[in-house]
């Protein structure tokens, strides 16, 4: 396990701000100078979504991967409310099953467990981690909620585009929207490695998003950041495109009434 440490300051102001807000057992790192989170994505749970042009590029899950994002639900259905790709046997999605359970799919496996109770109108950090050794875990606010096994297989990587605001269940590269979200998502990220619990705690950051393109504290995985969709930030909160800030360069296109809003986790 990595030792919790103070972050390396980027400038004197950053260091002074951290020192003033730090207390034992409470870690909330201030954002890097020039970084802010002002927008999120809003979808209506019916026909709104973002189509991210990943096609077959998510081809690394058998070697380990992580999906994490922030969500604030306006309403929660009694079924699956998630983002990602939900093609049978070739999955990569994370969300909820009703408000009571985390629910996820990863290659040919799944992982689900008690969510601890999710309320509408509240921001939560959700994460799915798959290891090359065949373990799947889900997290809410950096707290582990489930642990299940799967069989890693290079042929079980997703065949279709990744969605925000719902999942894509089309089996051959097309578009089939399902498992929609009525609410907001923000700061969606995919890594080509299985993040550990310490890294997820650093990303959750006591409820305040951080810049995932830079290492900070126990988060030292920025070099494995493959997809990073900030849901309005870096795009001025306007237009119909979410620019991918990760190494995969897979931009997303807003569909239906999907829109950027100023409701963000903080």
**Shape by Cα distribution:** globular
Distance N terminus to C terminus? 27 Å
Domain unit count: 1
What is the strand content? 35-45%
| Oligomeric assembly | single chain
Radius of gyration from CA coordinates: 17 Å
CATH class, anyone? Mainly Beta
- Per the CATH scheme, the topology name is Jelly Rolls
Task: Determine the number of helices (DSSP H or I, runs of at least 4 residues).
Answer: 2
Q: What is the H-and-E element order?
A: HEEEEEEEEEEEEEEHEEEEE
Please describe what this structure looks like:
With 266 residues, the chain is mainly beta. It has one domain: Jelly Rolls (Sandwich). The chain is built from two helices and 19 strands. Strands 1, 3, 8, 9, 10, 14, 15 and 19 form an eight-stranded antiparallel sheet that branches. A hairpin with a 3-residue loop joins strand 5 and strand 6. The chain is globular and about 40 Å long. The relative contact order is 0.24. The N terminus is likely disordered.
